[in-house]
Amino acid sequence: MSDNLRDLLRDEAQPIEVPPPPFDAILTGGRRRRTVRRAQVLVAVTAAVAAVVVGTVGVGRLFTDDARRSTPQIATRAPSPSPSASASPTLAAGTLEVSGTGVGTLPFGADAGQVEGALDARFGAPDRVLVPTAYVRIPGQDGFYETAGDPISPSWQYRAASLSCWGTLCLHFGGDDVDSLKLRGWVLAPSDAGTGTTGSASDIRLAGTGIGLGDTWEQLHAAYPGTQVNGGEGASVTVRRTPWAGVSDGVGAWRLSGAWDYQHPHRAPADAVVTRLSGGEGPEPGCC
Amino acid sequence: MSKQPTDAEYSEFVAASWGPLYRTAYLMVGNTALAEDLVQTALTNTYASWHQVREVGAAHAYARTAVVRSVASWFRSKVRLREQLTDRLPETPYSPDHSTRPALLDALRQLPPRQRAVVVLRFYEDLSVAQVAHTLGCSEGTVKSQTSAALGKLRLLLGESVIPSIEGIPS
User: Fold this and answer.
1) Backbone angles phi, psi at A256, to 5 degrees
2) Alpha carbon distance A216, A269 (integer Å)
3) Which residue of B has its CA nearest to A177?
4) Contact flag B44-A23 (C-beta cutoff 8 Å)
5) With contacts defined as CB-CB under 8 Å, which chain B residues touch A34?
6) d(CA A87, CA A183)
7) Dihedral sign, CA of B17, B124, A179, A249?
8) What are phi and psi of A156, to 5 degrees?
9) Beta carbons of A100 and A277 less than 8 angstroms apart
10) CB A245 within 8 A of CB A100
11) B5 neighbors B53 (Cβ within 8 angstroms)
C-alpha cells in the first residue's frame, strides 16, 4: 500500500517546476527577524525582573486587612460534565440536537477524535479546521491566551485549542495538550467561509425545544421564557439569560438579526430571527 | 561544528533545501505560490536561529519542522481570513489528460491539515513514526492514529486499487 502512495506522491511532486530560492529576501528577512527576536528577549527579561519586584510587594499586601476582606471569586461558568461512559461514537440520522451538555449523544468532555469521527461520518470532512494550537500564559492574567503579550486575544482555561466546522456548526476542543483535546463547546451560526462543502450540516436544533437558526425571536422566547433581548457590540442584538452558558465571539453567545434599539433595550427588532446559538466553552476575545 | 555557521553556508543550505522543502509544502497545501511563500517564511525563521545551529547536517530537519509549522499557521489564519487559495482557474478548460494527479491532490485537500501532514511526511519524506511525531510535536500514537484515519479516507476517495487495505496499523 505505502509503495503505491509513495509513487503517487512523487509523481505529483517531482514534475512541478521549482522556482529559484529568493536568497536576498530570506537573508534580509532573517536578519530583521533575528534583531526583533533579540529585542523581544531583552523586553521579556526586563518584564520578568519587574514582575518579580511587583510580586514581592504584592505578597506583602496579601497579609493586610484589606486583602483578607476581599470577596471570593464567583464562578461565571459551570464546570463541564465529565464524559459519559456510554457516549456513542456515532450520531443518529435526522435532526442533530445540541444543548448545554453536548452535541447529540456526545457530552462535553468527550474525546476530540471520537467527536470528530462521529461528525465526519455524519457530515463528511469538516470544511474549516483550526489545527491544534498551543495557547500561552500572560503574566498577571488568568487562563491561556492565543497570542503572547496580547490580553485581548482569545483566551480560555485550556492550554491547547482546536476548532472544526461543518457548515453552520463549529466545535471547540480544548485540553492540557494537543493530544488530550476534549469537546468543550459548540457554536451554531451561518457559515461565511464561502467554501463550505458540508451543506448537509443544516438540520441542527436545540435539544428539547427544536429552536434553530432562522427561527423568530417569538419562537425562541416562547421556548425559553427567561431569555431577554439585549444590546451587543456594534448595535447587534444579543440574547441574555440563556438557558445555559455559551461561547461569545466578543458580541454575544446568542444573537438575533437586526439592529439594537437603545431606547427600547429589551425589545426585539421587527422580524428578528435567531442568527447565533452556542453552548459550553470556547476561546473568547478579551475586552477593552 | 566548532564555529558559528556563516551566511555563505546558509545560502548553500537554502540552495540545497529549497527544492525538497518546496515540494513538501506543495503537497501539504496544494498550491505552488503558497508553497513558495511558506517555505520562504520557514527559511527566514530558520535563519534567525542559524547562529545556534551546531551541525549543518541537522539543519534540514529543523527547516522541515519550520515548514510544517508555517503550513499549520497558514491553515489557522485561513480559518480567520476566510480565503481559499487555489491553483485552478474558476473554469477549467477541457483536458484529455486522465492521469491520477488531480485526483490525488484533490483527495489530499479533503484531509484535515494534520492528516495531510502525516501522509506527506510519512510517505513522501519517508520519515519514521518517531520522526513525524517529533516534527509535528505530538505523540507516536497520534501519528499512528492519524495515519490510519488518513489512509482510510484516501482509500475511500481514491479506491482500493490505489490504496489497498491491509490489516493493522501501517508501518
Assistant:
1) -120, 160
2) 10
3) B138
4) no
5) 47-48, 51
6) 12
7) positive
8) -165, -165
9) no
10) yes
11) yes
C-alpha cell at A2: 505505502
Of A34, A31, A15, nearest to A23 by C-alpha is A31
| DSSP letter, residue A274 | E
CB spacing of B79 vs A130 below 8 angstroms: yes
The single-letter code of the amino acid at A206 is L
Comparing CB atoms, the residue among B22, B105, B149 nearest residue A12 is B105
C-alpha cell at A8: 503517487
Say whether pLDDT at B83 is over 90: no
Region A206-212: mean pLDDT is 94
C-beta neighbour count of A158 within 10 angstroms: 22
| β-strand partners of A278 | A187
Test the A interface: residue of B9, B79, B171 with most A CBs within 10 Å: B79
- Closest to A104 in 3D by CA, of A201, A219, A29, A249: A201
Residue A136, amino acid: V
User: pLDDT grade, residue B18 (50/70/90)?
Assistant: very high
CB contact under 8 Å between B84 and A19, yes or no, is: no
CA of A138 to nearest chain B CA: how many angstroms apart? Answer: 21
- Angle at the Cα of B29 from the Cα atoms of B23 and B31, rounded to 5 degrees: 75
Is A25 an interface residue toward B (CB < 8 Å)?
A: yes
Q: What is the pLDDT of residues A153-188, one digit of tens each?
A: 888 999 999 999 998 999 999 999 888 999 999 999
CB pairs A-B closer than 8 Å = 135
Residues paired with A182 in a beta bridge: A111, A174
3-class DSSP state for residue A128? Answer: strand
Please list the alpha-helical segments (H only) found in chain A.
2-13, 23-62, 65-69, 112-123, 217-223
Beta strands A160-166 and A96-98, pairing class: unpaired
B113/A129 CB distance under 8 A:
yes
Q: Do A125 and B120 touch (CB under 8 A)?
A: no
CA B109 centroid distance within chain: 12
Pick the closest to residue A26 from B18, B142, B88, B122 (CA basis).
Answer: B18
Confidence of residue A24 (pLDDT cuts 50, 70, 90): confident
Let me know: does A181 contact A173? Beta carbons within 8 Å: yes
